[in-house]
Amino acid sequence: MAKASSASARSELVIITGLSGSGKGTALKALEDLGYYSVDNLPIDLIPKFAELVPHVRRAAIVVDIREGSALDRFPALYKRLQRKIATRLLFLEADDPNLVRRFSETRRPHPLGADRSVAASVARERERLAPIRRLADPIINTSKFNVHELRETIHAAFKGQHRDPEILIHVTSFGFRHGVPADSDLVFDVRFLPNPNYIPAFKALSGKNAGVARYIRSFPQTVEFIERISDLLVYLLPHYIAEGKSYLTISFGCTGGRHRSVMMAGEIRKHLAAAGYRVKETHRDLRKA
Questions:
Q1: CA dihedral in degrees (13, 68, 110, 127; nearest 10)?
Q2: Best exposed site among 117, 143, 185, 236 by fewest CB in 10 Å?
Q3: Which residues pair with 62 in a beta bridge?
Q4: What phi and psi, each to the nearest 5 degrees, are found at residue 283?
Q5: Between vectors from CA 54 to CA 76 and to CA 8, what angle results, nearest 5°?
Q6: Nearest to residue 68, comparing CAs of 121, 118, 133?
Q7: Of all helices (H) and strands (E), which one includes residue 59?
Q8: Residue 287 near residue 263, CB atoms below 8 Å
Q9: Contact 176, 254 (CB under 8 A)
Q10: Total H helices, total E strands in the chain
Q11: Integer Cα distance of 25 and 205 in angstroms
């Protein structure tokens, strides 16, 4: 019995679930690359039997999702039982609705819930069905801003173990408050206190990417001090996020319309974090909005 317990302690089962189109197949492949024995769409009733085999392969990963139909309702109770027997992690992948609809449109694949309703309606129904499972998951990864390679890197960073240095993928994004705060933001900074180039006719039609606009915003002492203070704060915080197991972080900078101050600031912070050795991706959500 002691040997069996020791084997179970060294073994790990990762269950991947989440919304259709969120990248579950890519996540499964990424775990397979790390040496996990991988199985897609294993029926609910076979999971307990599969878990008994995990000590022999040490690490395994399976996908369980909406394709299970009504059997999915039994998963939360099953997952809690599994956790008492073997080290089990539940990875939940999701994405924003527009991204999911676009992905189905690009691949021209029907949603698993059927073609008798729109993709948007199917996504909403799927979110509702998966809500009890999502509450049990750790980690939860929003893949809206990831391409296939970035998602694979994020999975590797989250599951590759303690024998390598931890990594984190940082998304620095700009937005306009008039269009709403990005739902996936981990940290939000309001830069509306900075002078607004929008009121200068020569700058109004340009963006924070323009060198002249950027120079104007940086010409104020509060801008320089803010960049220095926020950069120092983030460089201090990031190792602590990594220690807590965070594999990606979204840092959002907002101004009124999302075209000038926030765009310039996101670019500046990206450069500072990259210089500190972090992997950083820069995006501008509202840059092209009126």
A1: -80
A2: 236
A3: 15, 39
A4: -135, 160
A5: 90
A6: 133
A7: strand 59-63
A8: yes
A9: yes
A10: 11, 9
A11: 42
Residue 123 sits at φ, ψ, to 5 deg, of -65, -40
Q: What is the pLDDT of residues 143-198, one digit of tens each?
A: 998 888 889 888 888 887 543 444 688 999 999 999 999 988 999 999 999 999 99
Continuous segment of H or E residues that includes residue 18: strand 12-18
Indicate the angle between helix axes 119-134 and 97-107, nearest 10 degrees. 120
Structure tokens at 114: 């059927």
Question: Do residues 91 and 139 lie in contact, with contact meaning Cβ atoms separated by under 8 Å?
Answer: yes
Q: How far apart are the first and last CA of the chain?
A: 67
The pLDDT value given to residue 178: 95
* Nearest alpha-carbon partner for 21 in 129, 139, 111: 111
Angle at 169 between CA 106 and CA 149, to 5 degrees: 40
**Helices 75-85 and 47-57, packing angle to 10 deg:** 30
**Is the pTM higher than 0.85?**
no
Model confidence at 35, pLDDT cuts 50, 70, 90, reads: confident
The single-letter code of the amino acid at 208 is G
What are the two backbone dihedrals, phi and then psi, of residue 3, each rounded to the nearest 5 degrees? -65, -40
Report the 10 Å Cβ neighbour count for 109. Answer: 12
CA distance 62 to 157: 18
The single-letter DSSP state of residue 63 is: E
Cα–Cα distance measured from residue 72 to residue 65, given in angstroms and rounded to the nearest whole number: 7
- For residue 133, give the nearest of 13, 18, 12 by alpha carbon: 18
User: Which runs of consecutive H residues, i.e. helices, occur in the chain?
Assistant: 2-10, 24-33, 47-57, 75-85, 97-107, 119-134, 148-159, 201-204, 211-218, 221-243, 261-275
Identity (one letter) of the amino acid at 105? S
In this structure, what token pair is assigned to residue 217? 């915003």
- DSSP bridge partners of 39: 62
What is the predicted pLDDT for the residue at 117? 84
CA quadruple 258, 261, 265, 268: dihedral positive or negative? positive
